[in-house]
Amino acid sequence: MAKSVVVLSTLDTKGRETAFLKEQIEHDGCRAILCDIGVVGSPTIKADITREQLAEAGGTPLAELLKDATREKAAPVMVKGAAKLIGEMIKQGEAHAVIGLGGTQGTSSATGVMRQLPYGFPKLMVSTCAAGDTSAFVGIKDIMMMFSVSDILGLNPFMRKVLANAAGAACGMANIDEEKVAASNKPLIGMSNLGVLTKGAEVAVEYLESKGYEVIMFHAVGAGGRAMEQMMREGLITGVFDYAMGEISDELHHALRAGGPERLTVAGKLGLPQVLVPGGSEHIGLFLAEEHVLPEKYKNHMNTFHSPIIAAPRLNPDELVEVAKEIGKRLQYTKGDAVMMLPLRGTSRYGVEGGPLRNPESDKTYYAAIKASLPKTIEVVEKDLGPEDPAFVKECCDRLIGLIEAKKKK
Fold it and tell me: Which InterPro entries does the entry link to (predicted)?
C-alpha cells in the first residue's frame, strides 16, 4: 500500500506549486494529502483537508476567523487544528511524512504544526527562510529545513527541480522500514553531555549497552537538554543520566548553553529514575563578537577558550553558590529515585588536575552549596575521582540501573 505524505501549504497563494509537488509525490509512488493552511484568499486547487476542517479542529469556525481576519488571530487556530488532525492520522497509520511550503508566514505555520508531531516522524520544510537562523522554526524537533533559494512563487526549471527533490526526500523518508530501523525492546537511557565530558560519555554508552540498555545522547547546549526532557514527556526515555549541567549555569548568566526555565524539573515531575552530575557547570559558554576578546565582566575570572569565538570563563565561588541554589530549587520536584554524584577532582576536563580551570577550593565551596540546596529525597555520593574517570562513570551507570530495576519491582 502506498505511503501518504501530508502537504502543508496555502492553496490560495501557492496552488500551482503545490499541485506540481503533489504530482511529483505521486510520481515517486506515494499518495499526497493536501492540507490547506490558508485563511483569506480562495483556494486555487482542491484540498484533501480543507481550511474549514482545520479551523473547526482548532476551536474556531473559519467564518468566525474571517470576521476579523488577521494572521495573529488565525494562524494559531489553523496550526492547532492541523496538528490535531495530522496527529490523529499518524496514530491511525494514515500519514507517513509531512512536507511544508512557505515563506516567512507559511514557514512559521507549517513548522508550528511539525513541532507538535512525534519525534521520528519525517518532517520536511521547503522554505525561503532556511538559509538564515532556523532555530525559531525547528525548536527542539527533528525538522529538516530545505532552502528553496528563490521565492516559491511560480514554476520555472529551477523551482520544479527544487520541488521534485523535496518530493523525493519526503517519499524516501515515508518509505523507510521503521520497524527494522527503530524497533527495540531495550530500555532507553537519556544522557546529557558536553565536549569537556565526552571521554566519560563514551565509557557510559559502552557500559550501559553491555548491560542491555540503549543510550540517546544530548549535547547540553540549550536545545539538547530541552529535547531530552521533551522525549521524557513523550514517554520515550526510561531513565536519565544527567551528566552535564552547564545549561543551568548559562541560564543564570544568559550565556550560550542556556537550557530554559524547565531544565532539571521534568524527570522529577515524571518520577523517572535519574543520576545527576554537575558536569561542566563550573564554567559558562560565551559567544564572542571578536575572536579571543573576552568581555570586560569576565576578565577577572579564570578563563580558557573552547574555540576562537567561544570563551569558557570559570564562575567565581559566589556565582557557583548561586548555581548550586538554582540546581537545588529545580530539583525540588524530585521526590526520590535520584542520586547526585559529585566527582571531587573536578566537574569537567577543564577543572581536573592540569586543566585550565582547576580550582579545588572553589569546587569544595560549590559542592557544599549543592549538598545544602538539594532536597532530602536525593542521595548524595562523593567520589575522589574525576568526572571522566571510568570508575566514576561506571558507578553512575550502576546506580542508575539499580534505580530503574528497583522501580520495576514497585
Answer: Tobamovirus_resist_UPF0261, UPF0261, UPF0261_C, UPF0261_N
